[in-house]
Amino acid sequence: MKSRSLYGIHFAKKSIADSGICCLVEGYTDVISLHQAGVHNVVASSGTSLTEDQVRLIKRYAQQVTILYDGDPAGIKASLRGIDLILAEGLGVKVVLFPDGEDPDSFARTRPSAEVEAYLRDSAKDFLAFKTELLVQDTEGDPVKKAAAIHDIVESIAKIPDGAAPTLHQAVQPLAGGE
User: Fold this and answer.
1) In the chain, where do the E strands start and end?
2) H or E stretch including 168?
3) How many Cα atoms within 13 Å fall on the side-chain side of residue 115?
4) Rounded to a whole number, what is the distance in angstroms from the first to the last CA of the chain?
5) pLDDT band at residue 174, thresholds of 50, 70 and 90?
6) What does DSSP assign to residue 4?
7) DSSP for 22-44?
8) CA angle, 88 then 165 then 77, to 5°
């Protein structure tokens, strides 16, 4: 059953456990290309929306998930949906978006392994920073839109188990115009 399994978990679980990080992609070609590029702690949700069962499977091996999704609007929306499920399990979440027109598969196939690994390491953003940046772009200085964005961020924070949540101030500071 796709909703309970992750493509590549059998090959990736040792690397995931050793690094403490699970890289999550959308499709099996992404897993194959990244694995060939030297990224072995990668699995795919196999074309389905991320499920609680899949997140729990990840949690058996890692406490941190790095979501590697396409930089297109569909990829961004998919990452936001998955983040809340991951947060609810108490896992840390980072997000890596690829340049326009790229996905994990094409990126890994057209660059040397060291460049792929460096990009994943250097481009990973904390989920709150990622989500806040994304939502701030849509507010256009409109106070009603800002309030809605803050509400959206607070809903994500509320999913994090007690003791693991960042402060509300850290989350909404960029929306308030602070650094």
Assistant:
1) 21-25, 42-44, 64-69, 92-97, 125-126
2) helix 168-176
3) 8
4) 45
5) low
6) G
7) EEEESSHHHHHHHHHTT--SEEE
8) 55
